[in-house]
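The protein record minuted underneath.
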Amino acid sequence: MTIAPAASAALGTASGTIQLRKEKRDPNDRAEGDEPPGKLLPQTLNVTVNVWQQFVDPNLGIGIKFPSSWHVQTIPNSRGSSLYIAENTEEFPGKGITVTKSPDTVLTAVGELQSSLQLLSQDQRTFNGRMWTIYLFSEASTGQQFIAAFSTSPGTLYEVGGKVNSSVGAVFLQVLSTVTFP
């Protein structure tokens, strides 16, 4: 099911219910039940729709959506620029999600992370037709976990990552699933 809010919809979360109507495909088929056509089914389906902000960065060549209670800023790095997405209430940087574009390979980037972190798991997911390899790391001395997802285009590596905490852990895969390459 696809729910597409109007472009003028307020950012935020809306809750409600969906009620389904039973229709018979074949009026002679008793296996579909005896309800008359058009009867509302008694069970409703609770739904929550999150209308997120969208940000497109032509320098990174990506578009991304994030919760309405978060903000995005462009930050410089040694390879150009990155995006930093975090909750509006974040007092100290480091609790959000960083998006970076680089000329590195996945092997180089993961190798750099493994020089100071222990690899806990690896998974692959496809979002919007693009394969992402997702790694979970842990810092040995503190137990702090980090998540990093990588996707490649010819000559370009995209990394989306951050510390696993209550903010990032709750929305990381949802944010990752919104990344597009316009």
